[in-house]
Design a protein that fits this description.
about 725 residues; alpha+beta; Beta-galactosidase, Chain A, domain 5; eight-stranded antiparallel sheet; 13 helices; about 15% helix
Length: about 725
């Protein structure tokens, strides 16, 4: 386990009953710029937040609606429908409180992540614990606030030894009453996916914009209104960058936000289960942290580590087996329909009742022995760590959106995939194979096979698994972001850790910093990734927004590095990659991940070996990160220092506008460096000339100025080598 350096813990308690009609308690951040106030006004708990005296959040209500008793439910039949109702109605746990006690503490430490954007993170906050009692019911509710220099975190805690023991949440009533009509970057509140491009508008305009977008057809949008997902990035009229998210999502449903555009207020909306309830709790227990990050600039927002700091320290005693990985994959050619996942074209397969050795191969199966060996050779020759192979196991002929319980067994390979021989060959070349477990969202089927599948991985030396959850969840009626599935994703990570396996989860719930506690959670998708360039394309601005939103909770397996933009000409897929080659190189710096893929094929890299050199050179684990220029939806420029050898790299991306910047590399130590610059050519454009790039070398010092031009949909990448 990484060493933790503790500086200061100070606790001050004040546990005397408060008698005034209006009870107020204040808390300030360590640097004094942020201040929050808890107030109990006429028994209603509320909170506010200010930055340097300017309102960020106006009085915002806190609390819950709790489901009533179901022990003696009434059954009614009206001739057409059977309905069930509570004998005891739901009740509100958001009013009629008295303040029992408050206590304050401070905490300051530096901790070292197993991998990350820097090698040391400061965790410094002032804390306020508020203990409440509802007068009539006697129910107890605590609210814990932590105020950092970069924002606020708070959670609800249900203490032990009270009347409220086992209960179900009907709804969490947390509010975020914004002080003004903030500009927002948002995606709709779908219970099953984050795979959308972002809307950009003021809070008051979200509902109207929502109706104008195809997103309005999202079947799981709450009330078919303007629900949005977190991490929600906003910018206030005064220029503050404000982000609302959650941290440490454990045993609780994922939170969305309902937008009251007229009043600029956001309210929590939890993902329901198959019965419509939001969460099942047993005291003592607590919710995830609700977070409000506040920064004076976009680059300060990117540097915030509040989400990680609100998670528990590493739970694994031994982390020596967890290593950042740069990998390739037999994947992109299947995504683009150049090859197939399935071995045959038979229309229907029942697991265990079909002999694949008697089947006629379709001739397009990607995960075959010859092709996998060729990929291993290329990956090994160019210094990669691993190779992902998808479609290696039986069942792909009839897997998606069929609501099939038994789909894959995650153990039986197709006849043309010799699992033992291929692993021996890979290991002889210094390459580890990455296992692929697509569950097709038959989750209980995955859980029944999980232990045997992980033992198979141990047998053949697999150290990483990519999981997938395409389709509707089984058990039927559950959602990808409900409490049941949140518990499943963490169960997978914990079980994998027992086998010393790292997990890269796709279609899972969005990350909330749990990679600090379980660093074998080395990658997640949980957003519209680069694969969508094969599904019609993604607008260039997408990669300038994701670092403010999706990546706020943890790294993303975005799968960068696509060099062939014209997919129709190459694979027959009617799509275009909306990015220049220089833009794709920059993503290795701007889209942080300790699990970083070179997603294109060896043939396409061979055509541009000079540009491919940057992918080979760039690090994936960092000692330090500097955020130089940024504006969500417009542009992003980041410099990072490699943890292993101290080499610096820099990358930048832009939207569909050309942009120019002067970069001063004052992050470099004293001395002279060779800057190798991979830039868009003068005539580059993501639509008309995406392969236009230039590579130049310049002698620079920390006092130099490097002028950069990014083409529309373009970018740049720089490696600095000490002379």
């Amino acid at each position: 386990m990484k060493k933790i350096v503790l500086i200061l813990i100070l606790a001050i308690s004040a546990c005397s009953p408060q008698k005034s009609i209006t009870d107020r308690v204040t808390l300030t951040s360590p640097d004094g710029d942020l201040s929050m106030e808890f107030l109990l006004e006429d028994g209603i708990p509320m909170y506010t937040l200010k930055h340097k005296g300017t309102d960020v959040l106006l009085p915002s209500r806190l609390g819950f609606e709790i489901r009533g008793s179901m022990k003696s439910a009434l059954i009614r039949f009206d001739g057409d429908h059977i309905t069930k109702s509570d004998v005891k109605p739901s009740f509100l746990l958001d009013r009629n409180f008295e303040l029992l006690c408050t206590s304050n503490s401070s905490f300051d430490e530096y901790w070292e992540p197993v991998w990350g954007e820097e090698c040391s993170i400061r965790n410094h906050y002032h804390e306020l614990l508020v203990e409440l009692k509802q007068k009539e019911s006697g129910h107890l509710l605590n609210i814990r606030f932590r105020l950092f220099d970069d924002g606020l975190g708070f959670r609800y805690e249900f203490p032990d030894k009270q009347r409220l023991t086992h209960f179900a949440i009907k709804e969490e009533l947390t509010e975020f009453a914004m002080a003004d009509d903030c500009f927002a970057w948002w995606i709709p509140g779908d219970y099953d996916t984050q795979e959308y491009e972002y809307g950009e508008c003021k809070l008051s305009e979200i509902e109207e914009n929502f109706k104008e977008q195809i997103w309005a057809n999202s079947s799981q949008t709450p009330f078919n209104t303007s629900g949005v997902q977190t991490s929600l990035q906003m910018k206030s009229a005064s220029g503050l960058y404000i982000n609302i998210h959650e941290a440490a999502l454990v045993n609780y449903p994922c939170m969305h936000l309902i937008v009251d555009g007229k009043h600029h207020t956001l309210r929590s909306w939890l993902t329901p289960d198959a019965q419509g309830w939001k969460g099942y709790m047993q005291t003592p227990c607590h919710t995830p942290w609700r977070t409000v990050q506040v920064a004076e600039s976009a680059v300060e927002q990117l540097a915030s580590r509040l989400i990680l700091n609100l998670n528990e320290p590493c739970a694994l005693e031994d982390v020596s087996w967890i290593k950042p990985v740069k990998y390739m994959g037999v994947w992109w050619e299947m995504i683009t329909d150049k090859s197939s996942w399935s071995y045959t074209d038979i229309p229907s397969v029942k697991l265990g009742e079909f002999d694949y050795n008697q089947a006629t191969p379709n001739g397009t199966h990607g995960a075959n022995n010859t092709k996998v060996r060729a990929y291993i050779d290329f990956a090994s020759e160019h210094g990669f760590d691993a190779l992902l192979v998808e479609g290696w196991n039986i069942g792909w002929e009839d897997w998606a959106n069929k609501s099939k319980d038994y789909v894959f067994d995650f153990q039986t390979p197709y006849p043309d995939f010799d699992i033992e021989a291929l692993n021996q060959y890979a290991h002889s070349k210094g390459i580890s194979l990455i296992m692929h477990h697509e569950t097709s969202s038959s989750v209980r089927n995955y859980e029944r096979h999980m232990d045997a599948a992980y033992k198979l991985m141990n047998k053949y030396g697999y150290t990483s698994v990519k999981t997938g959850y395409v389709g509707d969840i089984i058990p039927r009626g559950e959602y990808h972001y409900g409490q049941w599935m949140v518990n499943h994703y963490l169960h997978v990570v914990k079980e994998a850790a027992k086998h010393k396996i790292t997990v890269n989860a796709h279609e899972a719930v969005r990350p909330t910093g749990l990679c600090r506690t379980y660093p074998n959670m080395i990658g997640n998708e949980s957003a519209m990734g680069n694969e969508y360039q094969a599904f019609g394309g993604i607008g260039p601005k997408h990669v300038t927004i994701l670092p403010f939103t999706r990546l706020n909770g943890g790294p993303m397996d975005y799968t960068p590095g696509i060099f062939e933009q014209n997919l129709k000409e190459w694979s027959g897929k009617n799509s275009w990659v909306n990015a220049t080659i220089a833009n794709q190189l920059a993503l290795y710096v701007t889209m942080y991940s300790p699990l970083q893929m070179a997603a294109d094929t060896p043939d396409h890299y061979r055509e541009h070996m000079d540009a491919f050199q940057f992918i080979k050179d760039v690090a994936i684990d960092w000692e330090e990160s500097r955020y130089l220029y940024a504006e969500p939806g417009d542009y992003l420029i980041i410099a990072r220092k490699a943890k292993e050898d101290g080499q610096w790299f820099c990358g930048g991306v832009t939207d569909d506008n050309a942009r120019e910047f002067d970069i001063c590399p004052d992050f470099l130590e004293a001395g002279e460096y060779e800057a190798i610059i991979y830039a868009d050519s003068d005539d580059a454009h993501y639509k008309t000339n995406p392969k236009g790039y230039s590579i130049s070398k310049h002698k620079v010092t920390p006092e130099s100025t490097i002028h950069i031009r990014m083409a529309p949909g373009g970018g740049f990448a720089i490696s600095f080598k000490k002379i």
